[in-house]
Amino acid sequence: MFRNLKIGSKLVLLGLIFSIPVAVLLFLLIKEQNIAIEFGQKERLGVEYINPVRHLLHDIQKHQVAFLNGSSEASALEKQIEQDIRSAQEVDSRYGKDLKTTHGLSGLVEKWSTTKSLILRSSSNAKPENINSAYDDIIDKSILPLIIQAGDTSNLILDPDLDSYYAMDNVVLNLPALGQLIAQTNAHVADLIATRENMESKKQLISFLLARIEPTVERLNTGLQTAINQNPSLRGKLSLPLRTHLEAVKAFDDTIRRQVLDAGPSEFAKLDLKSMSANGLKTLESNYAMYDVTIGVLDDLLATRIGGFNQRRGASLGAVGISIVFAALFVFSIGRSISKPLAELREAMDRIGKGDLNTPTNIDRKDEIGQLAGAINRLQKTLQGGGKMKAA
């Protein structure tokens, strides 16, 4: 069957055959790029999910101190927490199935409702240490695990690039943990100043919390510095907020040690609960300001990576499309360069068969077709000479 095809058809068929491996390689390349794009898009879902949970965490920590201090802000913060929960539920309604977070969020909402009922409303005479335990329970067992769950199931924990990986590490782990340590320290200092009971054991607990802050800050600093070294364009976004936050945490640590842990009885008696709590809340605000900068950087890095993969996918498709067009033009040109002179030679042979020996073929080529045309012209001359001899 192949030998019965015209030359143009044979060339098209050969082109199609040789294009199969190119098409397979293109398919595999696009498939890999699509996987990378989907991976990054799922990471961004994790970022979108974590953001309202971060606000919920922050507001619950502020509510804890406001409630301990008897501040009028507690009621407003309680309403804000309800709004944070609705925001988290709205995001969970879209992504909870993929991220497997719905159960954890439901447990968090239920635990917050129980905390309000048993501690904040029913037990007006509850001890500060019991209040702190209730808040520690809801944060350490519900909110922080929910953030980690979203980080795990959204591929964030598997981020392949150093800059975005260390930004992720601080968004999912270090900054939430550091914020909780600052909030716990602030809450237990408020307990100590308000009750002035079991002072030694409470000071030991505060000292233990401060000791845990130092390695967490070190991980935060090391990770973000690595991200900056890997991607110098992040220096302008991260360096100043990071330095500001590190200074704020150090000042917080120094203040607690100097005015609470190392203070004598007379100095300790002068401590003002509201001013100490305000100092802790200021440090907490610094932590979440750093958090917002870092999560913004992470989302930008993910968006840039996805954009790069989209560009490369488009470039791959464009390059292959252009190659196909040029290949088609090349096949068409070769087919035409063969079929047209062959048609002329066929016409020449037809003329010779009809007795026309005076019209030579006008094909000036050096290849086999040109040689065949020359042979036909020589045949015409030979026949012309034979005809003259016969006539003579």
Q: What is the structural class?
A: mainly alpha
What radius of gyration results from the CA coordinates? 39 Å
Number of DSSP strands? 0
Name the poorly predicted regions.
none
Largest sheet: none
Helical segment tally?
10
Based on Cα principal axes, name the global outline: rod-shaped
How many separate domains? 1
Mean pLDDT: 85
Per DSSP, what share of the residues sits in E-state strands of 2 or more residues? under 5%
Task: Bin the helical content.
Answer: over 70%
Element-level helix/strand string: HHHHHHHHHH
Amino-to-carboxy terminus distance: 50 Å
List keywords for this structure.
392 residues; mainly alpha; rod-shaped
In a nutshell, what does this entry contain?
The protein is mainly α. The chain has ten helices and no strands. The chain has helices at 7-69, 73-99, 102-121, 128-153, 162-195, 199-230, 235-261, 265-269, 273-353, 368-391.
Give a description of the structure.
This protein is 86% helix and 0% strand. The protein contains ten helices and no strands. It starts with 6 loop residues before the first helix and ends with a helix. Helix 1 (7-69) runs parallel beside helix 5 (162-195). It has one domain (7-317). The model has no long low-confidence stretch (mean pLDDT 85). By secondary structure, the protein is an all-alpha fold. The protein is rod-shaped and about 145 Å long.
